[in-house]
# Entry
Amino acid sequence: MTIETDISHKIPHPIGDNVPRVDAREKVIGSALFADDLQFGPGLLYARIKRSTLPHAYIKRIDTSRARQLPGVKAVVTGEDYPGLIGLYLQDRYIFCRERVRYVGDPVAGVAAISEEIAEKALDLIEVEYEPLPGVFDPEFGASPEAPVLHPDLGQYEVANFIFPEPGSNISNHFRVRKGDVEAAWVQCDAIVEHKYRSISQSDVQVIAPYVGGGFGCKAGVSMEALAVAIAWKLRGRPVKLRLTREEEFYASFVRQGVVAHFKMGCDKDGRLLAMENKFFWDGGAYTEYGVNITRAAGYSSSGPYDVPNMKTDSYCVYTNHPVGGPMRGFGMPEMHAGLEQCIDELAYAIHMDPVQFRKINCIKTGSTLITGMTMHPTGLTECLVKAAEAIGWGRKDPPSAPNKRRGKGIALMWKAPAMPPNAGSSAKVALNEDGTVTVSVGGQEIGQGSFTIAAQIAAAALGVPVETVRVASPLDTNYSPYEWQTVASRLTWSMGNAVSAAARDARQQILEMVAKAWNEKPEDLDIIDGKVISYRSEESIPLKNIVIYGISLPNNEGWVGGPVLGRGTFMPTYVTGLDAETGQGPRAVVHYTVGAQAVEVEVDTDTGKVEVIRGVAAFDVGKAINPDMVKAQMEGGFVQGLSTALFESLQLKEGILQNPSFVDYRIATSADVPHNIQAIIVETPQDDGPWGARGIGEHAMVPTIPAIANAIYDAIGIRVGAPPYTSEKVYLAMLDAGLIEE
Amino acid sequence: MAQHAITLTINGEWEQVVVPSQMTLLQMLREKLARTGTKNGCMAGECGACTVLLNGEPVNSCMVLAVECDGMHIVTVEGLMQDGVLDPVQHTIIEHGGVQCGFCTPGILISARALIDRNPDPSEDEIREALVGNLCRCTGYLRIVDAVKDAAALSRQAATL
# Structure
């Protein structure tokens, strides 16, 4: 399918321009509203949540009587009030726990009171008696028959038809790929590497959604929302506010899933990949929400961006007594690529081939048959690889800045498809206003990625008006905003962009037909340029503001044509097919893959173990950069988030209890930690089903950073440090172990 | 709990507020006065989203009690723009594309303004150091650092006019 773009060459339009963000001004003057900024007046009540203090236990008794008697408390709710199960792909949890708790932080009761302080006091007055149960704290163990079963009712849960739980075990989804004959291929291999990696730990409702501060995953789906609704339900007519503390945010919203990943891959002496066998045990946490689909996405993408003729993959989502695993920028891809891209380097070294050359031979190319049987669409992965390698000065070793330091360079590739149901749809409205300006209505949220600016650019381009005259209606409100599946998966520029483009073209067509009738011309001879309808035939011209509400009067009092103009547009991919449950095979597993490469140069301090990333290069194939500056901003921000994950970040769980729920103990990169130079390179191989050829870039930008840095550390000191984060302590101890330094 | 009547200026305007003893400056701004430009990110002095100027010094307003501010002068992000003209730090952060989700932006702008006020010509390292208490998850900081550099230059130009 091709989205019509023939108008683009005729009229000036802002596609490919660095249009300033439409939301920037209100965000710098302090008037942009986020959810906590909304004012509800003196009737507002405040909610707090009583949470489980044990990772796994039966609830023997809950006594809320003392809490209910505290002056100022308006409602107390528990699992008894809400017996229904919820969940996105697998309905496996209650809003408030019933019978048992499954992680530290599991909601047990909720309170609403006239102040946060009173609500907090009421929590202390709720008595919960538990009977502790043995826990599961490792996904590989959790998948074994020895592990205690955390969800005995797994077989009764409602489940989406592309998710495959194994009742009687802790496996909430098992995704398989079987392509070719892996066993036969091992015999032909001249080199095989095998590694195990532990990766990064871990419509009755009206929704009015003002701006959302950095999403990155944990705000997708339903985490705290059901709690607030359940409490407010008991207090008809009163607004109730539930605000998580920063500490709760660390374990009571979704966390990145940990993974234990086994990789085995082999190639012949010319460097051709012959086979790969991967097994992933995802730490899904106590419930699933998105976890089962991360498992699926990692399964169908488990070869990484490589052409692998023989493939065997088993990707398991496993229940554990950890915080609920969910989406976090990359949706399983950073975790999977972290190990896979280090193995690729190892395999290249095993046959004495340069890692860039090895990747050039094996990376996915246009027309490659992917491991699911899908044929790869046009892709610029090789160009990304070559440009990233060139920009980092691949093959050139610069001297370190001091004698106690060692330098190294590393590179890694990535691919990622939007992981979503096959039929995730978008819709948009484009309305013309009295003054000729345009209001675009969408249901996709602005979470910092720039979706409103992109919507304005696409509407302006497809309609033929200056981008400055386009406004995007906000805040979003389910009472009037059109449908959008979800603001996730880096899919808005592509999917919502298609809907906005269709809505703008619909409005344009209405206007052209109206004017054609009034002027007695053909719509094909008319165009809209810079907010005016012009005729190529008669060379007449009329500004939109005169006609888009009131229509045009016909000569000689013959009446009027036209009237208010309202365009509508929708988009839904209809071509994604199911995959065979046993083999993972199907004609089209996903809509498309965004691909890219990152290269880094690091310096390792042999006295302290400190890893400094001196320089970074990112090259991604975005199909078409609708707003190149914002694309580059995604690549830079993603690189730094990847760097932060690689060097600093780790959820430290001990028997299910989080040890570091604060920004002091869970450190993220600051302004002092980032390299002075991050080069962002845009590659544009048009996507056939994207607006002006665009595909998403957002999550992708951090996917290859961990392995690029790990490969650079190896290049510098010859050591594979193990699981990230590559803290000074870990690197120092690894150098001691390897005998590279002495105490 | 004890209540205190305090008098202070917020963005140049005198305000009289009655606050309980344990109320923070951040809570007073957001909950009592509905000045929501200043953001609540952690309530623990870790993220910098709530940074305001207190008598010209940048502070985490979640770490300051409101009663301590009696007689003092507060500047929040809403006070940076003068007569409809953006402060150079606001102007350049837009120019450089240093705004994404915008949640950390108010605190960053205040820290940047405070830096330029005390050091009109900061080096890149000095800018990075001044912003080290303002966490940003979206941008990767580079565009913000460049914006502050330009804002300092613009501020120097304005001062010499």
Summary: The domain at 88-160 of chain B is CATH 1.10.150.120 (DNA polymerase; domain 1).
